[in-house]
């Protein structure tokens, strides 16, 4: 299969690495080769966390500028920051609930206007989906399930070669047992939001 390149960007603590594990597990269940790499940055202090996943045969797990087929953003300003990884045929799925950085909270920075950000993303890419994954995670029963809400949305678009069943099985295998039901609900809500 032709490689499909996915970039996931988040703020530390949003569950980017768990999302990558779920996708990797689901790809193995589907017998699809997958390579992954991660950049942690200052994750423990609310910094950026970036994961790159390539489904299909690839010589490298690095996704350079203009190479990502899909950008999955857990936070709107991080989605904007990673937009250079996309090309004109890329798809973007992003949470639109902001987590302003420390500099904005103390008045030393300005958070981007969300409507302007949305318009910019739409102009630069082929397809875009904007949702309040934070609200949907709360509706599922745990605000920390933003990552799984976004995986539900990603799966529902059909752009990745993984089925709902493969993803649900991967969630059950990867997430702590106490949180499986909440995460399955979060996955369903994310899928419905773009379906």
What does this structure look like?
- By secondary structure, this protein is an alpha/beta fold.
- It has a single domain (4-194), classed as Pyruvate-ferredoxin oxidoreductase, PFOR, domain III (Pyruvate-ferredoxin Oxidoreductase, domain 3).
- Helices cover 42% and strands 22% of the residues.
- It is built from eight helices and six strands, in the order E-H-E-E-E-H-E-H-H-E-H-H-H-H.
- It has helices at 16-29, 76-82, 102-105, 114-124, 133-140, 146-157, 164-174, 180-194, and strands at 4-11, 34-39, 48-55, 68-73, 86-95, 127-131.
- A six-stranded mixed beta sheet has the order 2-3-1-4-5-6, with helices on both faces.
- Helix 1 (16-29) crosses helix 7 and helix 5 packs across helix 8 (180-194).
- The mean pLDDT is 92.
Features:
globular, Pyruvate-ferredoxin Oxidoreductase, domain 3, 195 residues
Task: Give me the secondary-structure category.
Answer: alpha/beta
| CATH superfamily placement | Pyruvate-ferredoxin oxidoreductase, PFOR, domain III
Kindly state the number of beta strands: 6
**What's the average pLDDT?**
92
Uncertain runs are none
The backbone outline, from C-alpha atoms, is globular
CATH class membership: Alpha Beta
**What's the architecture in CATH terms?**
3-Layer(aba) Sandwich
Order of helices and strands: EHEEEHEHHEHHHH
Radius of gyration, taken over Cα atoms and rounded to an integer in Å? 16 Å
Largest sheet: 6 strands, mixed
Number of domains: 1
Percentage of residues in strands:
15-25%
Instruction: Give the number of helices.
Output: 8
> What proportion of the residues is helical, as a percent range?
40-55%
Strand order of the largest sheet: 2-3-1-4-5-6
Write the CATH fold name: Pyruvate-ferredoxin Oxidoreductase, domain 3
């Amino acid at each position: 299969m032709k490689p499909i390149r996915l970039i996931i960007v988040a703020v530390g603590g949003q569950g980017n690495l768990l999302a990558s594990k779920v996708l990797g597990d689901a790809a193995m269940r589907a017998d699809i080769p997958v390579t992954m790499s991660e950049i942690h940055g200052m994750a423990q202090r609310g910094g950026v966390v970036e994961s790159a996943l390539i489904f299909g045969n690839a010589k490298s797990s690095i996704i350079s500028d203009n190479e990502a087929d899909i950008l999955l953003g857990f936070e709107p300003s991080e989605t904007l920051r990673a937009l250079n990884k996309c090309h004109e045929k890329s798809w973007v799925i992003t949470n639109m609930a902001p987590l302003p950085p420390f500099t904005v909270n103390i008045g030393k920075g300005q958070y981007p206007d969300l409507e302007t950000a949305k318009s910019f993303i739409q102009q630069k890419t082929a397809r875009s989906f904007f949702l309040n994954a934070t609200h949907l995670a709360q509706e599922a029963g745990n605000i920390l399930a933003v990552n799984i809400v976004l995986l539900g949305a990603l799966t529902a678009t059909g752009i990745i070669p993984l089925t709902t069943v493969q993803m649900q099985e991967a969630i059950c295998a990867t997430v702590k047992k106490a949180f499986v039901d909440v995460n399955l609900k979060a996955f369903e809500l994310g899928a419905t939001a773009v379906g």
